[in-house]
Design goal:
Number of helices: 6
CATH topology of the largest domain: Rossmann fold
Number of domains: 2
CATH superfamily of the largest domain: NagB/RpiA/CoA transferase-like
Distance between the termini: 85 Å
Number of strands: 12
CATH architecture of the largest domain: 3-Layer(aba) Sandwich
Order of helices and strands: HHHEHEEHEEEEEHEEEE
Length: about 230
């Protein structure tokens, strides 16, 4: 056998096997037919673990968020400004992103407005590190996991605003609480950036010693309005 004869035999055998497979499969279906067949497959699986219309999703969110060591308060819609003022009363300075509803800050005591820092022009990381907290809204919240989702739209600010300061106050409207992840994803714009927050930032070493505030805020305070 010549030096390359064995290689040719292997190549011929491989080609023969592939030819037999192709013949057995028959002609390939047009791509449009394949797509139509895939779309027609029955999908009877359950898409949600909880009924999105059920009233208990807000209570479930509050419970799960508290499990992650967040401070959670439920307030009436007309009580947001008072609750925000109470939480921020002890803060010397805090960041407010563009688009935050001004009525949320309407009851800041005395010189409260003097403690508001605006992100215009954008604050540097060093400047943000010198500010104690930030106040934002959210895009959606997930009851099943106690998670808040930011899409960094109006009232939420850029990502650095909610990662550098040590304290994050979030206002969540009851109608923003989705039952589970599938429900939440359906409400979000996939073209926008998303930040998912489940409790204060925390990590642990190999001995499972928990350390908070390493990769984000050490404290997360949630006001659920409604």
């Amino acid at each position: 056998m010549g030096p390359y004869q064995g290689e040719f035999l292997v190549s011929d055998a491989r080609a023969e096997i592939l030819a037999r497979i192709t013949a057995a499969r028959g002609p390939a279906a047009p791509a449009a037919d394949v797509d139509a067949a895939y779309a027609a497959l029955p999908r009877a699986y359950r898409r949600a673990h909880h009924d999105p219309s059920a009233a208990d999703v807000v209570a479930l969110f509050a419970e799960r968020a508290a499990d992650y060591r967040a401070i959670v308060e439920r307030v009436p819609p007309d009580g947001v400004a008072g609750a925000v003022a109470d939480v921020l009363a002890v803060m010397f300075r805090f960041v407010v992103p563009d688009g935050l509803p001004p009525e949320w800050l309407a009851e800041l005591p005395g010189s409260g407005a003097d403690r508001i820092v605006r992100d215009d022009p954008p604050l540097s990381a060093r400047e943000l590190d010198g500010i104690f907290g930030v106040v934002t809204g959210c895009a959606v919240a997930i009851a099943e996991t106690g998670t808040i989702v930011l899409d960094h739209g109006p009232g939420q600010g850029r990502r650095a605003l909610t990662l550098v300061p040590d304290f994050h106050l979030v206002v969540v409207r009851a109608d923003q609480v989705a039952a589970d992840i599938a429900d939440a994803i359906a409400r979000l714009d996939p073209a926008r950036p998303h930040t998912l927050i489940s409790g204060p930032s925390a990590t642990s070493d190999i001995e499972l010693i928990r350390v908070e505030g390493v990769h984000g805020p050490r404290s997360l305070h949630i006001l659920v309005a409604g």
